[in-house]
Amino acid sequence: MQHIIRTLILAAGISCFQQYSFAQDKTQGVIHYDITYHIHASLKPDQMQYKDLVPETIVEKAELKYNGQRLKSYFNDDIQNEQDGVNTSIKVSSEDGNEKYADVDRKTLWWVDKAKNPPVLVERSLFEKDEDQATESAETQKILDYNCRKLVVKSKNGPLTIWYTTELPLKAGTPASAFTDKGVVLALDSKKMSFKATSIEFVPVTETDVTPPADLKIVKNSDHKGI
Questions:
Q1: Residue 98 in contact with residue 70, Cβ under 8 Å?
Q2: H-helix or E-strand containing 15?
Q3: Distance from the CA of 129 to the CA of which of 22, 97, 162, 217 falls in 20 to 30 A?
């Protein structure tokens, strides 16, 4: 009986050590976000007549997978909503699409343009937009127990308030088109949309998961604008 007790205690100790070691590997994982679309604030003047027929906001899910300094982000851009017996179909327009891949070390981003037939992979510099218009703030807040710093960015669509953390090994990341080489974006607020990280899973992510589709034609961003 004494031998059995010792064996059980030893097994439990090994199990705890393995779990602790795995929890420390933050070099790959999946970040889950809630994206809130401010529908009323996004309506164009000729769409205001439908204001009472659509919800003021809609919340959707988004995710970011990363392995080292490579990532894939995705959000649903075709929203079907039913409220009070009224069905609403909303197409989210994003300059960089809803499926993106990035290599932070190469400072390169690819996004899938599904409007083309067949779809193409558009390549551009990861930090080419709005970086020189960003203003750092001393204000901080905690998101998922990570210390985040505030960054205010001036963009053509209005100011963006970005909250990023340097406590994760990934240098840049977001489900939308707001990247910074300062850290991982865990939250963003703007007039038309906002998002916030809801959980992080430190799970294995294969290189295939964060590699752009090999069967798509690659088009440089400068050439794509002229198409």
A1: no
A2: helix 2-23
A3: 217
- Quick check: bond before 212 cis, omega within 30? no
Residue-range domain boundaries for the chain: 27-224
Tens of pLDDT along the chain (227 residues)?
444 333 333 344 434 444 444 445 789 999 999 988 877 767 777 777 767 667 677 788 899 999 999 999 988 767 666 666 666 666 666 667 788 999 999 999 998 988 888 989 999 888 765 444 778 888 999 999 999 999 988 877 778 899 999 999 988 877 776 678 888 999 998 888 889 999 999 999 999 999 999 999 998 877 776 55
pTM of the model: 0.78
- CA pair distance 63, 179, nearest whole angstrom: 14
Domain topology for 27-224? outer membrane lipoprotein receptor (LolB), chain A (2.50.20)
